Amino acid sequence: DELKLIRELYAEKQLVIYHFGNPYMIRALGLYNTLATVMLYQDFPEFHEVAFRHFMGEVTAKGKLPVSLA
To answer: Are 10 and 34 in contact (CB under 8 A)?
Structure first.
């Protein structure tokens, strides 16, 4: 179960989460206290490519969420 694995890691490690979808789901899952959370809003291949490029340091993220995750 993916959610179980994520929660186990969350309890033991500082995570950086790349989330493809609604930012309120981070709050609903209780995963808002991370080292960083990168929101991509859509689960399209183009967004996955940007997330990978961001993770590799090829692009920077400049935006700020219009909502609070905490």
So the answer is: yes
